């Protein structure tokens, strides 16, 4: 790192530490009585959003960032609000940026809960994010990720004393995603099924069921506060915009494929159509080409999806 950027980073850390109560990596936002979102700061080490729900006899944490250090900082923020034990951590899906800090909560005795497919994918599928031949240190890191202690198939309800927290399996983003609903606060933690003004990572996506999932969330929770996986806390209208992005992407690709386009020509055509509406969204440059290529493969039946884990994994 260059000296100047190091100095800027130190200055940033200094001001973040002394002028804000929050970690430099994320911002805590209260979104209901005892319900908090931890929204990742751009350029910080959180890498994704998380959150937590405080009941009368314990806490449920939703997602653990991409590393144990920001996850420990999240635990410290929770400790400022309540002395209740963290009973459960829900991993909304297997991706590293949502499971990387599991160790921080496992070491204080929390039970890590997730959809059963996640357990089969966490230490294998995460390797693909480091290229074809991952460096040994990345391999070791992925292979030492803390796995869920408890898995479920369709639905599980958690009770924090009298407070109900619903965990529901929903399709679209990886095939092993959970949504966490707090009915008494009208809050929905969408994990990476909900991105707020950000292009999504579609590497494992099935976009048709994903649209149905978002329609169901909007139908069942029309006035809810949604915690996105990436971006800010979201309203129903943000969720609708995100649903429309996936639909537009599918339609524009299908139209281009219908006129015989494929490869680079298809990507260029579709990108020109997406840019006026979505060019300002976060991760646009990172994901737009991959979104088009991956969805084009999906629509022609050529997309690789994570294989169903064997029973007992
Ligand atoms: Zn994510």
Keywords:
Metallo-beta-lactamase, Chain A; 7-stranded mixed β-sheet; 10 helices; binds zinc ion
Give an overview of the whole structure:
The chain is an alpha/beta fold and 313 residues long. It has a single domain, classed as Metallo-beta-lactamase, Chain A, CATH 3.60.15.10. It has ten helices and 13 strands. The chain has a seven-stranded mixed β-sheet. Strands 8-9-10-11-12-13 form a six-stranded mixed β-sheet. A hairpin with a 2-residue loop joins strand 1 and strand 2. Helix 8 runs antiparallel to helix 9 and helix 8 packs across helix 10. It binds zinc ion. The site of zinc ion has 7 residues, from helix 3 and strand 12.
Layout: helices, strands, pairs:
Blueprint: H1 3-19, E1 26-32, E2 35-40, E3 50-54, E4 59-62, H2 68-81, E5 86-90, H3 96-99, H4 102-106, E6 111-115, H5 116-121, H6 136-143, E7 150-152, E8 155-160, E9 163-170, E10 177-182, E11 187-195, H7 207-220, E12 225-230, E13 233-234, H8 236-258, H9 263-278, H10 284-299
Parallel strand pairs: 4-5, 5-6, 6-7, 11-12
Antiparallel strand pairs: 1-2, 2-3, 3-4, 8-9, 9-10, 10-11, 12-13
Helix pairs in contact: 7-8, 8-9, 8-10, 9-10
This protein binds zinc ion (ZN).
